[in-house]
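Notes from the pairing session

We agreed to fold both candidates in a single pass and log them together. This is the raw record for the first candidate, unedited. Please don't reformat it; downstream parsing expects exactly this layout.

Candidate A
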Amino acid sequence: MNRKNFKRYIFLILLLAGNLQAQERLSLEQAVQLALENNYDIKLNKNDVEQAKNNVSRANAGMLPVVTGNFSTNNTVSNTKQTLSSGQTQERTGAKNSNLVYGPVLNWQVFDGFEMFARYDRLKELEQLGEANFKLTVQNTLADVINNYYDLVSQQQQIKALSGALDISRLRLKNSNNRFKIGKAAKLEVLAATVDLNTDTTNLLRQIDVYRSTKIRLNELLAREISTEFKVSDSIIIGNNLILAELQASASQLNPNLQSALINRRIAEINLKEVKANRYPDININSGYNFSKSTSELGFARTSTGRGLNYGLSASINIFNGYLQKRNEKNASLQIENSKLQYDKITQNISSQLASLYQTYQTNLELVRLEQENLGVAKQNMDITLEKFRIGSVAPLEFREAQRNYIDANARFTSSQFDAKLAEIALLQLSGKLNLQ
């Protein structure tokens, strides 16, 4: 890399670092609040919940009567010839006839084998299923937001460490140039320092690129302009008080997937009731009040009008339908069995995930402690080596090794923090207790 390009990269890095400091801070609470208000998946599922709630009505279950207003009119124009019993003949060309009927009509199914009550219960269960799915969407969105937020915190820490390493590499190159000018160092030392500085510059630029991509992803989750600039907090707070037994107990009550499976089991049981209702008769009441008027230019009655109430009762029952009823009931019973198996499967899967994640969580907590201690040792070693390098009592390769060890130790510490936080978030999500941890 020539000197001109090198200065350009250094200027770019300093500019990016300055932007990170000048940007408005976005707290985790603010990010979650924005997601709850703006996220498209949450909005879509919220509308689904409202639709399911609107569908819960006795009319939608078929319990209420239906009243319609009917109107019909018929008109004819014909050439007519009539011979009466007296032998008299009547003939009319273009005779006009009309018939007009209108009035309200009521139809009410008063009994259908209790199927209407089962339908009403199913509508209520579907409302609860919508709410469980909405909760699942909220939990998943919260998990994505929190994961991306702490990913940015982790990357921000890494950028800070890489920037510090870059400052040291610039100091090393300056020191090597000065030593070369007074004849105390070979050109090879300057070239090696330049290569290492370029490597550190590349690593920092790549980390900044990843950081920017993650910011775009978080802005997408918050459903706002993806180029919105912000910075996040500078620390990852890890909870260390999670207890497996409490998480399992909470999951059995609050996990949205488990709640959905339980609701689907109840819906399957209701479906069997609906199928069995076909064994009973259907009874319907119908009534109406009709107004009628008819006119005829030829015939005994030229004009006829009438009005009056009509009412009736109808009933029907399935006697034989090719054993379809028996088949449908058997299939509905199998669906109940499947829903129970699905519930047991999800319960076991959640228990397995909790146990595995809890083990990972405990391991990562221990790794955080170990890597923090290791980072302190690497930092102390780096400081001592740097002082020796300033006075020329340590070889450049030894200095670079100490620098690399410090960078690696910082990366492992940051990664262990992030991994521990991811495990904590996953545990809370499975238990249905995810909040602003």
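Candidate B (folded immediately after A)
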Amino acid sequence: MAAGNRRSTRADDPPENRPVRRRPADRRAQIANVSAEAFGAHGYHGVSMEEIATRLDITSTALYRHYPSKYALFRQEALRLSGISAEAVRLPPESVEWDAERRCAHVVEALLAVSITNRRRGALLRWQHRYLEEEDRRTLVAQMAATDAAIRERIAELRPGLPSAERAVLTAAVMSVIGSISDHRVAVPTRPLTALLAGACREIAGCALPAGTGAEERTPPPAAATFTHEVVLQKAVELFHVRGYPGVSVEDIAAAAGLPASSAVYRFYRSKGDLLAAAFRRAADRVSAVIGPAIAGTDGPGAALTRLIELYVDGSFAERELTFVYYAEIGNVPAADRTTLRNIQRLNVEEWAKLVTAVRPGLSAAQARVLVHAALALVVDLGQWMGPEHPECTRARVVHLMRVILLGTED
């Protein structure tokens, strides 16, 4: 429209000539969706109310009319996501006529539908729920426990003789696969994505776990760092794991590393964000470094994939804190470093996916990448949910479950 034909919006215009900006009827829902995606991408502490308002093209004042604080927004979305998952696992009345396999499939597909619909918001629940206040965290834990119990019950119906401890491991693995799609943006249409992940969950629910407990398999503590910069890095990761990145100061890191002052940290790292990036680069490089030797030193893609899985699990068990922090705090890495790390991760996943498609030629490259992400997430999820030294969650069992996800069938 030409400039001379634009309608004036001056204050002295007659009221009938002024454009009317109507508040959308679903404004509150828009705010909730945008904020949840922002929290999932950048973390609770990495997002301000002003940034949320900017994303919505409204003023901060207008935002505060709907929600009194950032925490109110965060709390609502975290509990909503856990609540709809707890509702999704309820069986309909007609399920009394179904067999155990159909009842289990219904619950898995219902949870997948929730996960896919809320894909861009799911990271909030997976990695940021630690920032809920105590009462709200108890509510969330109760809702997640209801979801967990429903899956366990379905697996118990499928396999009535399975020990309860093994059901717990399989349930955690199924929930990890379902939630893993919030960790990446691999594009697969909804129907084949649902079928792919439902198939992985079905394989997990029916698999036979290796026998034995982890009493003989205790993970040795990581080797003590000898150089000061390594000590700083190790202590920082430990603190980030316990408190979350925003809850740790450079002063805290210096004290944990036995340094006299925070200025000593800056001799090795420019900032706390630089320190986090260095830790993540180490984790990414560890995964990259074993790909070539594993492929060259084994006979065929299936054997190479198994060797990669074993090496990944070994490294993750040795540095559980770093593995968890990588997933939970990637949004706090400086933007340029985050891009570099994402590119390294993407290349690593591509190499794994090539092996998957070589073993399973019926899968597309994108489908293989989805399964790789699910298998990698399984390691950190089982360690976080069941505890780092859970006697039933052994290295051998984690390796086996990753193989079930990636290879599709048991040995």
